[in-house]
């Protein structure tokens, strides 16, 4: 069958997936066509829902997105900032540390 | 004499010659210069495709420089190969197919993108040199030439990173890249010295045949693995990557991705072919797996936090390298266990190798879409963008294709390779597979952030006059998007024709040795 990829324990066929998607889109469109058509445009009925609050007038910037995630992961990101110093000497220290760890692992493994 | 017989050396010679003749060609006019660049890279691409078809169907092709016949690897008076030998198998042909394809498309894209800058003969000359270095690094059969091509790759990359010479940040990024690359190259040279001092051989296949895995060999292995892991941007040796990818011109970042993959090739060639018989190879495999997991997780969590579009994509490049290290690392971990290798090891390797070319395509496309945004808005800051889908609809579509592909969304190419990695790695260690899936979710979240902040939302006043990017830039992006769709819709054919032979070329180290001896 065209597109059938063996993935180890199962298989994946993108052609079949696309056909399934098409059938689902057709079904969804059919169900949608039964819906109420007499809603009032440009009223609250068609406005984006923003947790019951008025939508912000300013566009949402990249730095605002996932604010809660970053707050929750604050300690992790503080640690990451400490590691990513931007100083080239530190880059070389990390390299030396990696070499030492790998050499110890290989030497200890051979004992 | 057939073209394919001399293809290994021609693939290196064509871009190299084109680079050194470029200053003269440049004097004949811009159009002739542009045609020269596209023609030379197009010819290189043709040679590579011809060679790939040849090695996939007929097996390894060797080319001995300076010999009476390119196929004579051993001199009549000696039993060891002393000349420089290029050895091309399915894995090396596969890597160069990805590298040269991206270099060609980047050159097409740059025709318009770089038009406003001066010193373009130097820009294209360096791009051609970098292409030659990538091919040389991958095709060479001996360790010292590998070092030489690694140096050529580093120097041309550093100069391209520093292309915006008036910006302090670009110079700083290039300086850091050069320091890190020099340290890495020095370690490679030490390792080559350790091996040469014991065996008097530089040829990889001949070394693999006689290597005794002494303590000095282990030191050499450590230095080589660490140096190439640093060059491919694996965590915790990744620090140079966001600096370099973030400050280079956007199309250059696309080429730096495939340049990192050439280093990844060297890492796997050393681990599988030269040290594949080492009794402690499982330690190296677990080390590569650990680097892979760290790269995936730290790469994506750092990416999601960025607001500079190129730095964000640079961290994603680190994260995606993690998948390749994980998949191929699992294959290496079970290489001495035939049952596990056939049960899931080969599939894990196929997944990892498939991800290499998928990553080259979608990350190449994503950097080019980032370049399109920068070209029109003049900023790399996502906080300064918004509502651009109205003005740049084609770029938006190309970005979405790249973003969904990198996030592993079906039916794009990233999904197929990630699924192979998830399923096979799960049988090795379920936790690793779960981490890989979690990273995919975070990748989707990160690219939705970019999509929302750059393309969606109300139209900003400052971008009211923005138009779609010029045609050559669109053509390059369109070809990459089409390839992503093609690889996503016909993954079975790609795996059968390209990936499976490449995986077995790595696994069967004796075949590589037999190519020379």
Arrangement of strands in the largest sheet of chain B: 1-2
Number of domains of chain B: 1
The percentage of residues in β strands of chain B lies in under 5%
**What's the overall geometry of chain A?**
flat
**DSSP helix count of chain B?**
19
Q: How would you sum up the global shape of chain B?
A: globular
Determine the fraction of residues in helical runs of chain B and give it as a percent range: over 70%
Strand residue content of chain A: under 5%
Tell me, rounded to a whole number, the average pLDDT of chain B.
Answer: 94
What is the first-to-last residue Cα distance of chain B? Answer: 23 Å
Topology pattern of chain A, helix = H, strand = E? EEHHHH
Structural class designation of chain A: mainly alpha
Helix content of chain A: 40-55%
How many E strands of chain B?
2
Structural class of chain B, please? Answer: mainly alpha
Provide the gyration radius of chain A in Å: 27 Å
Question: Could you explain how this protein is built, in words?
Answer:
The complex is a heterodimer of chains A (111) and B (517). Chain A has one domain. Helices cover 52% and strands 4% of the residues of chain A. In chain A, a hairpin with a 4-residue loop joins β1 (5-6) and β2 (11-12). Chain A is flat and about 75 Å long. Chain A has 111 residues and is mainly α. Chain A has helices at residues 14-33, 67-72, 74-83, 88-109, and strands at 5-6, 11-12. In chain B, strands 1-2 form a two-stranded antiparallel sheet. At the A-B interface, β1, α1, α3 and α4 of A face α6, α8, α11, α13 and α15 of B.
